[in-house]
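In this supplementary section we document a worked example of the pipeline. Step one takes a protein sequence of length 349 as its only input; no multiple sequence alignment statistics are reported here. Step two produces a three-dimensional model, which step three serialises into structure tokens for compact storage. The input and output of this example are shown verbatim.
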Amino acid sequence: MKPYKNWIFAVIAGLSVFMVLNLMVWEFFTKDILTDNIKSGDYTRVGYITGSSYSFKPTYRGTKSHLESWDYKNEPVDLITIGDSFSNSCGKKDLYYQDWIASHKSLNVLNIQPLPGAGFYKTILIMLNSGFWDELPPKAILIERVERHLIDEFSENFDLEETRPIEDVRKDFQQVQYVNRPPWIGFLNIGNFKFLLYSCLRKIRDDAFFSKVYMRNLDRSFFNVRNDRSLIWGYEDVEHLSRENDQSIKKVNANLNALAERLSKKGIKLYFMPVVDKYNLYSQFLVRNPYPSSHFFEKMRPLPKKYEFVDTKAILFPLAAQGQKDIYWADDSHWSWDATEKILEDTNF
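The serialised model returned by step three reads:
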């Protein structure tokens, strides 16, 4: 029985060491980046990176709030907004830029979600063709989309006559809500192992070989965190660049012109706000940058437009070049409230 007892003791001792090590890594390193709190941005959480989180992030307090589609009660609407997490309080982690527009421009702003099975462009098109905008006639519509996803979504060959029964559109308009619920994580999790592994491998390669988050040194300080000279970005910021070419960019512009034309017949003005990727904004400041550059905004600017183009790179890059800190948050895929306010101040709604 003695060998059997020794084996049981060894298993118990091994499990105890395993638990204690996990608890130590959790308490000293991963708790702040893996739990759902303001200290943790999405890139530090997914990349298991410490030293880039904030204890506090300034935000905005408006005097007037926007409306949400699921709470809409037939109020008059000046501006419709639709977009990804940037249009939904940066993934429910900040206040809405729509509140700034409502407060400073004295507009009634309604934020809507895409219809099931439809992207942002198709949603606006379907609502137009179904007659929904006749029932809820806005003065303008703003479509926002982050740069890394807009080529895939907006360069399609759209059926400009696509529609759905008005009853379905009405129902989905009120029912669809934006949801962002990070999973609950306890101290015993695979993230503790990934933190230790990625911390070692990131010294060799920016993406730690297996991570979807890159980290590389900048030539100056850009953030008010310990890793003030490090840029953290997602792999999609670079991966999508192979599809960003003259043809696809011209197709995006042509599709937006076609939509703007149709909306204008209803007296609706179209705004398009592509959000410059974090990598794109800071790529010129990376030390010995081995990755390709984005030219989306540079190629989009001279194209003829029948819509209002909100050039977020043209607005934000001069601030970066001047060395302004925290245009984007160091730990996150989203820009800060300083960037939001600057863009809105420079846009004539």
